[in-house]
Specification:
- Helices cover about 15% and strands about 35% of the residues.
- It is of the alpha+beta class.
- The protein has two domains: about 120 residues, Diaminopimelate Epimerase, Chain A, domain 1 (Roll); about 130 residues, Diaminopimelate Epimerase, Chain A, domain 1 (Roll), CATH 3.10.310.10.
- It has an 18-stranded mixed beta sheet that branches.
- A hairpin with a 5-residue loop joins strand 15 and strand 16.
- The N and C termini lie close together (about 10 Å).
């Protein structure tokens, strides 16, 4: 997007583009200048449009917090508000340090899913996720299709289905992912994660159909948490797991043995560029 004065009222507003293991986001520092019209669904959609906007899976506003060091408000690319996004939180960790809002050794990010502790470890973002809830090893009323071994449900900040398959590369993700995402047994729908052993033997591979994006995304942080929890419940993996996303980048999930304590999620949080809005159209 060019840096010229457009007709829209937000022209000239500074933004940041960040990438988290293939998930990409547009960030605004809204601590002093509120989001305003930028948070409207139609504007979110224009910002995230790949061909005519900046292009992103979602938009994040960094806001003042009364319970943490900074608050993140996350919106999917369709303009809907989401309670949590793992990779957006990892990116928030990176940007909050870059902007000097926090100290890298440890701080608290307020989210719609509750406060999350964050830090940089060897310059890599790491966050303490909420405990996985409503872990159901076999989702009731959802039948596995050909090539699917099991389908489970987990609430990892947002709802997820996890589908165990032999090879995620063979899945017709757009068709099967969309069908499961809108399964009538799911009141609010769900992200759908297909998971299989990595051919290299270095962990697990995951592909995600993401609710609110309505298509495949190259990574999903909360999806990686859901997959790790489900693989452990199925006794297919240890409590900690390396999940290789569709981008080829890995997310590391470590789950403590203590009940009710959430896992840690570590992965990429990379600032790609910063710029100023022009004409959103």
């Amino acid at each position: 997007m060019t840096d010229h004065t457009g007709s829209n009222e937000e022209a000239g507003r500074e933004f940041f583009k960040l990438c988290g293991s293939g998930n990409d986001f547009v960030f605004f520092d809204a601590r002093e200048q509120p989001a305003g019209a930028l948070a409207e669904p139609a504007t979110i959609q224009r910002l995230c449009a790949r061909a005519t906007g900046i292009g992103a899976d979602g938009v994040v506003f960094l806001e003042p917090s009364t319970v943490g060091d900074v608050r993140m408000a996350y919106y999917n690319s369709d303009g809907s508000r989401a309670t949590l996004c793992g990779n957006a939180t990892l990116c928030t960790t990176r940007l909050a340090v870059e902007l000097g809002i926090v100290e890298p050794t440890g701080f608290v990010i307020e989210t719609d899913a509750g406060p999350i502790r964050a830090r940089l470890v060897h310059d890599r973002p790491e966050i303490e996720m909420p405990a996985v809830r409503e872990l159901v090893a076999d989702a009731p009323g959802i039948a596995a299709a050909a090539g699917e071994a099991r389908i489970g449900f987990a609430l990892a900040g947002v709802p997820h289905l996890v589908v165990r398959v032999a090879d995620v590369a063979e899945v017709d993700l757009d068709a099967r992912g969309r069908a499961l995402r809108f399964d009538p047994t799911l009141a609010a729908g769900a992200n759908v994660n297909f998971v299989s052993p990595s051919p290299a033997g270095d962990g697990w591979r995951m592909r995600t159909y993401e609710r609110g994006v309505e298509g495949e995304t190259l990574a999903c942080g909360t999806g990686a948490v859901a997959c790790a929890a489900m693989l452990a419940a199925w006794q297919d993996a240890e409590r900690s797991a390396v999940i290789v996303t569709s981008s080829g980048r890995a997310l590391e999930v470590r789950q403590p043995a203590t009940a009710g304590v959430g896992p840690t999620l570590a992965g990429e949080g990379r600032i790609v560029f910063r710029g100023r809005l022009g004409d959103l159209g």
